[in-house]
C-alpha cells in the first residue's frame, strides 16, 4: 500500500532502537527522509546506516537527549520543518509514589509530557502553513489502563494525552493530525530489561517469565517493532487526514473493554 508520503521529511525521536526505530524504518520504506535521534551516538549511527542501506532514503542522525532543551534544539536545527513528527523518549522508572520527590515528578513530566509538547509547539505552525502535518506521540497502554508501579508514567503520559485531545481538534482543518500510539508489550530492549529485572525477583529465568507473560496476552505473544512501525506509518499517511485526537491501543487485545 502506497501511503502517499514519499519525499516527505520526518523527525523521529528516540529511534536508535525499539519502537522509535520501527517507526523510522516503516516511514523510510514509504520514501520518507529522516532525522533520527537518541543519546548514544554509536547505536544511532548504526541504525541510520542500516535504514539507508535497506531503503535508500536520506537519514541524518542527531545524537542528544531529547528531554533537554539542548537535545531538542539540535534535533530541530537538523530538521526545522518536518512534515511528520514522531515523539518518543524513554519511560520513567517504576516505584512507590510515596518515595517520589517533586524532582522525580518534574523529570517524568519533562520527558513524557513537556518534551513532546515543546516539539509540537516548534513544528506545528510550519505544518499548518504547508497544509500537511502528521504528529504521532508514542505513549503507553498505561494511558488507558494504568500500571500500578508506573505512576510517573501514568500521570505524565495522560497529561500529554489530555493536552493533545484539545489541540488535535484545532489543527485538523489544516490537514495536520495529532494522534497517540499506545504500546502494550512489545519485544524491545526495554521489555527484555524489565523481564530480566522481574525474573530475578521471582526466581525465574527471563525466558521463563517471557513465556508466562506472552501466554497471558490474548495474542499469546509480544508485539513486534515492525507491527508498531507500520501502524505509525499508516497514521502518517496522506489518506489519514481525517483521523485526529485518537489513541490507538496496540496490546494484542489485553485491554478487556468493549470500546
Ligand atoms: P527501547 O527499546 O529501550 O528503545 C528506546 C530508544 O529511545 C533507544 O533508541 C534510546 O536510545 C532512545 N532514548 C531513550 N531515552 C532517550 C532520550 N532521553 N533522548 C533521546 N533518545 C532516547 O524502548 P522501547 O521499548 O522502544 O520504548 C519506547 C517508549 O515506549 C518508552 O517510553 C517506553 O516506556 C514506551 N513503552 C514501551 C513498551 C514496550 O513494551 N516496549 C510498552 C509501553 C510503553 P539511547 O538510550 O541511546 O538514548
Molecular structure report:
With 259 residues, the chain is of the alpha/beta class. Helices cover 47% and strands 14% of the residues. It has eight helices and seven strands. The chain has helices at residues 18-29, 41-55, 69-78, 102-130, 151-171, 189-202, 206-216, 225-235; strands at residues 9-12, 33-38, 59-63, 84-87, 133-138, 176-183, 247-250. The protein has a seven-stranded parallel sheet with strand order 3-2-1-4-5-6-7, with helices on both faces. α5 (151-171) links the parallel β5 and β6 (176-183). It is globular, with a radius of gyration of 18 Å.
Short key terms for the protein model shown above:
8 helices, alpha/beta, globular, 7-stranded parallel beta sheet, 7 strands, 259 residues, binds NADP nicotinamide-adenine-dinucleotide phosphate
What is the strand and helix layout of this fold?
Blueprint: E1 9-12, H1 18-29, E2 33-38, H2 41-55, E3 59-63, H3 69-78, E4 84-87, H4 102-130, E5 133-138, H5 151-171, E6 176-183, H6 189-202, H7 206-216, H8 225-235, E7 247-250
Helix pairs in contact: 1-2, 1-8, 4-5, 6-7
Bound molecules: NADP nicotinamide-adenine-dinucleotide phosphate.
